[in-house]
C-alpha cells in the first residue's frame, strides 16, 4: 500500500512543480505584453484536478482497490510514456507553456516537438493520465467519473484557448493541417 501513496505523491509533487514553472512563465509572458483568456473556467479546472487526486486517494484507501495486478503493468507503461510526452511538450513550448491560457500577441505558434503533429499534445497526456493513473490501482470510479469531467472541461478549455490564440496571432491558419489529438495530417 505504501507504494500506492508514494507513486501518487510523486505525481502530485510533479504537478506542483509544474505550477511553479507556469507561474514563472506567466510573469515572463505578461512582462512581454501577453494577455490571459479563459480565466473564468481556470478555478473550476484546478478544483477538478484537486478533486481527482482526493477521489483517487479515497478510492485506493477506503475501498481497498489498490492491489497490484499483472493488469497494472499496461496502464503503468502507457502512463510512463505519457510522462515522457508531457516533458517533450513542455520543453517544446519553453517559456510559452502554462497551465493558464496566456497569449503573447504576435508570437509565432510553436510547431516543434509533438506540436508538429498534434495541436494539443499536453491535453492528450492529461486525458491519458486521468484515465490511466486510477487504472494502475483499479480505482475504476475515479477513472470513469474524472475522465468524463475532464472531457467536459477540455471542450470548454480548448475552445477558449484556440479562440485566444487566434486573437493573438494566426493560430488556426498555421495549424489548419494539424489534428487536435491524433498525429495525422489533414488533407
Automatic annotation (TrEMBL):
Entry-linked InterPro entries: ICMT_MeTrfase (IPR007269), Metal_cation-efflux_comp (IPR052527)
Topology class, membrane: Multi-pass membrane protein
GO function terms (MF aspect): methyltransferase activity
Record keyword Repeat present: no
Regions crossing the membrane: 41-63, 70-91, 123-149
Record carries keyword Cell cycle: no
Compartments (UniProt record): Membrane
BP-aspect Gene Ontology terms: methylation
Highest taxon of the lineage: Bacteria
Keywords: Membrane, Methyltransferase, Transferase, Transmembrane, Transmembrane helix
PANTHER family given in the database record: BLL3993 PROTEIN
Protein name: Methyltransferase
Amino acid at each position: 500500500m505504501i507504494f500506492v501513496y508514494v507513486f501518487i505523491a510523486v505525481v502530485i509533487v510533479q504537478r506542483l512543480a509544474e505550477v511553479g514553472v507556469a507561474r514563472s512563465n506567466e510573469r515572463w509572458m505578461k512582462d512581454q505584453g501577453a494577455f490571459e483568456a479563459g480565466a473564468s473556467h481556470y478555478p473550476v479546472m484546478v478544483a477538478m484536478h484537486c478533486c481527482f487526486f482526493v477521489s483517487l486517494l479515497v478510492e485506493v484507501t477506503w475501498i481497498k482497490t489498490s492491489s497490484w495486478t499483472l493488469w497494472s503493468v499496461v496502464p503503468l507503461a502507457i502512463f510512463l510514456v505519457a510522462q515522457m510526452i508531457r516533458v517533450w511538450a513542455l520543453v517544446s513550448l519553453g517559456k510559452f507553456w502554462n497551465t493558464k491560457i496566456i497569449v503573447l500577441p504576435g508570437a509565432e505558434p510553436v510547431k516543434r516537438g509533438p506540436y508538429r503533429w498534434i495541436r494539443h499534445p499536453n491535453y492528450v497526456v492529461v486525458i491519458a493520465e486521468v484515465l490511466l493513473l486510477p487504472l494502475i490501482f483499479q480505482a475504476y470510479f475515479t477513472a470513469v467519473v474524472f475522465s468524463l469531467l475532464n472531457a467536459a472541461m477540455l471542450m470548454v478549455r480548448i475552445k477558449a484557448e484556440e479562440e485566444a490564440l487566434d486573437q493573438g496571432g494566426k493560430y488556426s491558419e498555421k495549424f489548419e493541417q494539424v489534428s487536435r489529438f491524433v498525429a495525422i495530417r489533414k488533407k
